[in-house]
Specification:
The complex is a heterodimer of chains A (256) and B (335). Chain A is an all-alpha fold and 256 residues long. Helix content of chain A is 79%, strand content 0%. Chain A has one domain. In chain A, helix 5 packs across helix 6. In chain B, the strands form three sheets. In chain B, strands 5-6-7-3-8-9 form a six-stranded mixed β-sheet, with helices on both faces. In chain B, helix 2 crosses helix 3 and helix 3 packs across helix 4. The relative contact order of chain B is 0.13. The chains are: A mainly alpha (256), B alpha/beta (335). Bound molecules: adenosine-5'-triphosphate (ATP) and magnesium ion (MG). The site of adenosine-5'-triphosphate has 16 residues of chain B, from strand 2 and helix 1.
């Protein structure tokens, strides 16, 4: 246990002593909040033109999270860099010589980065919610409305999970460029394409981001997803667990 | 003390380290010598549990590296000075290493001072020169005040002052009773630093001997003589019972005789000399002979202590010559 505490402290120093931490996380907050505010403002203006059916499905909470699809990419970059920069710089050998218990090393690294992503994610989620609702004005939701608090807290958790997922992938691929080359198109393109083509919609619903984002939805009319908010969240947790196990196995087995 | 036993590493078809058994003792600098691609870095990575041996073991003071409690307090290593996150300052780089092994932050300032980087401690390592990077790597190795130190080609690319500094540092560490293990491919450098020598070639142990022994056995000295009356000189020498071998450029090489004595002998017979010079075969040559012949020698004998006299200069036909194999090695190399 003493070792774990030492390594946690060490990983905290590592994380906060590189600039990429500030700019990735900072970009995540700014992009999510700014884009959420913009889309909320547009949605308010558009409300008058909606059909009664669409008005019924109007989900002001989820609308305020519209920036997260883009903002999450910054957290993916953060997660990838925390792990894969150890490999690209060669630091991994110095790190593992200092902490030869590879499981402890990886666990502490992921724990620190996740804790940070969780804090930043929560701040982002609440901020984007309040800013978005301010933009929506009288069409907005209240934190006390049923399901809203769950959605906002879920948004923060989602950000932390997406970071963990990226770290697992980076630990498997061991290269920042390769990891980003896989994750960016996956979350930005492939996932949306799969979800919007009817033939692949069913598959798309089980991808980590689509499943995980369900937790941020409050108004669930016309919803044909085979899971609820926490069900979707659980699917994402399984994805994260799989990527972390994969990353651990690769780190354990391969030469550094 | 570091003990290697039957240490072997195979990358695909390539045997990088081949049943290496040897011991690195405390209190002296042990030089780990071998040409490029001999397996020095691979061996050191296995010592630190970074690469898994295909077979064999490494024991550090009787224990496996993984079993060491706060390993930086037992073993300090500089494998590759460039292997650090360039965006981190020197201080933070050392601080995170120190924290992982429960070493107090005050020690970070101490080692920064030892290597002379205090004034740039807050600068990002990205901008460091080769020499500064090397010093930072050495600071990291010294951090835990370890009993065992390992340096992989620490003087590579350093200027004479830097080389001298590292040489003095290593000797000082050994004098304090520590185990100092340092790799190089320069025999001349090792001759100045190391007391003991472990030589490998193509992953195999070629020599495990004290430096003094190696020098005594390998630094052949002779006198080169040249004269316009070469034939008469040869006759005079053989008349005096002195064997002379033809030298490379028409001279005569005489082993085991004093230059003054040879000069007087020539004078007595009125022979004009154009050259009379004591020569010493360099250790570098001896090292190259040793590693060049490694393949064939190993196939004949077994203990690999020293090449037999008169071994032919070229490896046997079935094996690639040293030079060609070297190129083959480099192709498969990562960095
Ligand atoms: N990760 C790897 N994968 C495949 N082959 C490798 C790997 N690392 C080393 N080798 C091979 O193992 C052999 C030994 O390499 P190593 O780097 O240990 O040699 P070295 O003695 O340190 O050489 P140098 O003096 O050039 O540093 C080389 O032939 C090299 O190509
Ligand atoms: Mg090497």
């Amino acid at each position: 246990m003493a070792v774990t505490a030492q390594v946690l402290r060490s990983e905290w120093t590592k994380t906060k002593s590189v600039r990429s931490t500030v700019w990735t996380l900072g970009t995540g907050v700014v992009v999510t909040v700014a884009l959420g505010a913009l889309i909320s403002a547009l949605a308010k203006n558009d409300y008058e033109n909606l059909s009664p059916k669409d008005r019924f499905a109007f989900d002001p909470t989820f609308i305020s999270f519209a920036g997260m699809g883009l903002g999450q990419l910054a957290l993916i970059v953060f997660g990838v860099l925390v792990v894969a920069n150890e490999y690209s710089t060669g630091m991994i050998r110095t790190s593992l010589a200092a902490v030869p218990q590879r499981g402890v090393f990886l666990f502490c690294k992921i724990a620190i980065a996740t804790a940070l992503a969780l804090v930043v994610g929560m701040i982002t989620s609440f901020l984007t919610f309040f800013v978005g609702q301010a933009m929506l004005g009288d069409r907005g939701a209240d934190l006390g409305d049923p399901g809203v608090l769950r959605a906002v807290v879920g948004g923060g958790l989602y950000m932390a999970l997406i970071t963990m997922f990226s770290m697992g992938v980076a630990a498997m691929l061991r290269s920042p460029m390769l990891s980003l080359g896989v994750l960016m198109p996956f979350f930005f393109l492939i996932s949306s394409i799969l979800a919007n083509v009817s033939a692949t919609k069913k598959v798309g619903e089980y991808l980590p981001d689509k499943a995980g984002q369900k937790v941020m939805q409050v108004v669930l009319v016309d919803d044909d997803a085979p899971y609820g908010p926490w069900g979707g969240f659980a699917i994402m947790v399984l994805w994260v667990a799989a990527s972390l196990v994969g990353g651990y196995v690769v780190l354990k087995k391969r030469d550094a | 003390m570091i003990e290697l036993e039957g240490l072997t590493k195979r990358y695909g078809d390539k045997l990088a380290v081949d049943h290496l058994t040897c011991t690195v003792r405390p209190g002296i600098v042990t030089g780990f010598l071998g040409p490029n691609g001999a397996g020095k870095s691979t061996t050191m990575r296995m010592m630190l549990d970074l690469d898994n041996p295909t077979s064999g073991t490494v024991r550090i003071d009787g224990r496996h590296y993984r079993e060491l409690h706060d390993p930086l307090r037992t073993v300090g290593a500089l494998l590759d000075a460039k292997a650090i996150h360039g965006g981190r300052s020197a201080y933070n780089h050392l601080l995170c290493l120190a924290q992982s092994n429960g070493i107090p932050p005050a020690r970070v300032r101490e080692v920064l001072d030892t290597v002379g980087l205090t004034s740039v401690a807050r600068k990002r390592a990205k901008g460091f020169s080769l020499g500064m990077g090397q010093r930072l790597g050495i600071a990291a190795a010294l951090l835990g005040d370890p009993r065992i130190l390992m340096f992989d080609e620490p003087v590579n690319g350093l200027d004479p002052e830097g080389i001298h500094w590292i040489r003095t540092l290593m000797k000082g560490l050994a004098a304090q009773g520590r185990t100092v293990f340092v790799s190089s491919h320069l025999m001349s450098e090792m001759a100045l630093t190391a007391e003991h020598l472990i030589v490998i070639g193509q992953g195999r142990l070629l020599a495990d001997t004290s430096m003094a022994d190696f020098i005594a056995r390998n630094s052949r000295s002779f006198v080169r003589m040249r004269s316009p009356e070469q034939e008469r000189l040869r006759d005079v020498l053989s008349g005096a019972g002195i064997a002379a071998a033809p030298g490379p450029d028409g001279g005569l090489d005489v082993t085991g005789e004093d230059a003054a004595h040879l000069g007087e002998l020539a004078a007595r017979h009125g022979i004009t000399l154009h050259e009379l010079s004591p020569q010493r075969a360099s250790l570098e040559e001896a090292f190259m002979r040793l590693t060049a012949e490694s393949v064939e020698y190993h196939a004949r004998a077994g203990d690999g202590a020293e090449p037999p006299a008169g071994a032919p200069d070229t490896p046997d036909a079935g094996r690639p010559a040293w030079g060609t194999d070297w190129r083959g090695d480099r192709r498969g190399k990562e960095s």
